[in-house]
Design a protein that fits this description.
Blueprint lengths: L1 E2 L5 E2 L12 H20 L4 H17 L8 H33 L7 H16 L2 H12 L3 H25 L3 H9 L4 H35 L7 H10 L3 H30 L4
Helix pairs in contact: 3-4, 3-6, 3-8, 3-10, 4-6, 5-6, 6-8, 7-8, 8-10, 9-10
Length: 274
């Protein structure tokens, strides 16, 4: 120990900056590192092949410039259909997510068994990839935007219902308990306390879901679920890279516009007085 002018006594041996990792942590990190290196070989990552492919990338990029303008009308219509598919699927999915979230939340579910069953259904909807749902609905109802809309509905339920339920569980239970003490029914407590408390988070989640649906709807067209993705697939298959460039630019404009509007709305929502 050493004395200092201000009377403060400090230990000569300072504590270590970081705690030494345990043997278990070190072993798990070594396993992860080994699996990652093995995965690098499994995915066929190759810098020489990438370098050999750069001239082809340059050729394709060169053929994309300037973007074609001969099919602006049909492409614009396909972009509009894509947005309509995303919007309708998201709105229906959000509306269906609300009752499922009420059944899945701990403070609103009528029974633990019901909560576990509904949460399992939501997890299943969320776990299955969009393309798998799209292929399922294409086989079921045929090619077109209806299959794509159904896919977005299911995907939105898997995304929104989970976060809606968590938002409801995080609402302060005090006001609800106060209403229950004076004889308010569960529906009254949900309408007066639960929904207003969870609404900002639910709106935020819904906007994120719309952004996600717009991006997903582009990919769904590649498997016949309608939208601009089908136009992009045809252009690439016919080596019309200039036409593909036009489609990609219009997709970018659509996604960027939706994201900007969503961000502005979320910013206004967060700055509103509660």
């Amino acid at each position: 120990m050493s004395d200092y002018p201000d009377g403060v006594r400090l230990d000569r041996h300072l504590p270590p900056r970081f705690d030494s990792p345990s043997w278990l942590g070190t072993g798990l990190f070594a396993l992860f590192l080994g699996f990652f290196l093995w995965s690098l070989a499994g995915v066929g990552l190759s810098v020489p092949e990438l370098l050999r492919g750069l001239p082809n990338m340059a050729n394709v990029a060169g053929e994309m410039i300037p973007p074609a303008s001969d099919r602006i009308g049909p492409v614009a219509h396909a972009i509009l259909v894509t947005f309509q598919m995303a919007l309708v699927g998201t709105v229906i999915g959000v509306l269906l997510s609300v009752p499922m979230a009420l059944l899945a939340a701990r403070n609103t579910s009528p029974h633990p068994a019901v909560r576990h069953v509904v949460r399992s259904i939501i997890s299943f909807f969320r776990t299955v990839p969009d393309l798998a749902w799209a292929l399922f609905f294409v086989v079921s109802v045929g090619l077109g935007t209806f299959a794509g809309t159904l896919t977005i509905v299911v995907d939105t339920i898997g995304f929104c219902a989970r976060f809606f339920a968590e938002a409801m569980e995080e609402v302060d239970p005090g006001p609800s308990e106060a209403l229950a003490s004076i004889g308010a029914s569960p529906l009254d407590r949900i309408a007066v306390v639960l929904f207003p408390g969870a609404m900002p988070s639910m709106i935020n989640t819904s906007l994120f879901s719309l952004e996600k649906a717009v991006r997903s709807s582009v990919v769904l067209g590649l498997v016949g679920a309608g939208g601009i993705g089908a136009e992009l697939a045809v252009s690439m298959e016919m080596f019309r890279y200039d036409q593909a460039a036009t489609i990609i630019l219009m997709i970018f404009v659509l996604v960027f516009t939706v994201e900007q509007l969503s961000s502005r709305f979320r910013a206004r929502l967060m700055h509103q007085p509660h």
